[in-house]
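Journal club prep — side note

Before the paper discussion, L.F. wants everyone to see what a predicted structure for a comparable chain looks like in token form. Sequence:
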Amino acid sequence: MNRAIALIIGFLLALPSHAQTLAGAVEQAWSRHPQAAAIVAREAEARARAEVAAGITPGPASMSLSNLNDRLNHNRGKQEWEVELAAPLWLPGQKAARQTEAESAVGEVAARRAFLRLQIAGEVREAWWAVAGARNARDLAARRSATARALEADVVRRFKAGDLARVDANLAQNERLAAEAELLEAEVVLRQAEQAYRGFTGDAAPAAIAAENAPAFGDRKDDHPQLVALAAVAQLAHARLKVAQETRRDAPELALRMVRDRDVFGEPHTNTVGVKLTIPFSSGARLRQESAAARAEVYQADAELALARQKIELDAERARLEFDIALRQFAMAEERRALTADNLRLAEKSFSLGESDLTALLRARGNAFEAEVFSNRQQVARAAAQSRLKQALGVLP
């Protein structure tokens, strides 16, 4: 018995987990995104670059081995072996510039990771509320179809009993056909929205789609992930410019030479040790080329940062305005729905008593349905506008 329970629990734990919250959906989309996998490799690259910049030398040491003898001509036993151990050297100021560049690269990758996560969150938020809106539309269309079928059955019954004319039966049938067509269209839209959501997260949308918490409107988003990422790019560009300015020539090389030789057979070998310093000449054209390229990156990064700061402010203002409008529209939609629902109750009572015709009832029913559709759409629009505001402010779910 205990073994069976353990097997059942293990099977349930092995089932794929479904994201029931927006934050969970973003996490699933992040785990599937191709650029998220590339970020891990970029982080490893940045850490390796920092290790290189912290090294004693700018590059790895090298060893060379050479041999010289006279076997091909005189063959008198002349023999010479030479071993050379060489290592590049840092130029003055270059090591500090490389370390600053490496630290900037690590920070840039981390900032890019946060910004990519925010971008993925924006895509998931849109897919999340698209599913919510499509579900509301489908549910309302299903209710309208069921009501239309019930109305058609009642009208046909009264037509057969002689209480209503044939034109009323035709109107009821037409209303039922229109409602069923609208239901089919709503089903298609819902399936498309759910497929788009599955494409982002790899999983089906949850049964209950909840709204996010309201953002704090007074918060300044100087730490917006996009601004942080662009600031990190600008900092990295400045660091690369400093490296280009400090790298005035190729790295000099210091070598330790050890030579063991003899002139003829029978003579003892002699050992000599020497030091060699190689200093490459500076190239003005090359330095100007690298500095100009690095300076161009600096100018571009600074300009993009300034433009993004202005755009984020404008996007936040627009998102706040759209959220305020969505709140007012939802309040008016709720008031309109209450009025049309009351009119529908009166029209149904009047029709059942024979005081009004079917056309008046269908008109009241259509107005009530339209008002309910608009109210539900505005309810989703209000929640979606709240999510877009948080997205504009750079707040993750």
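L.F.'s comment for the group: Residues 1-17 have pLDDT under 50 and may be disordered. Keep this in mind when we get to the figures.
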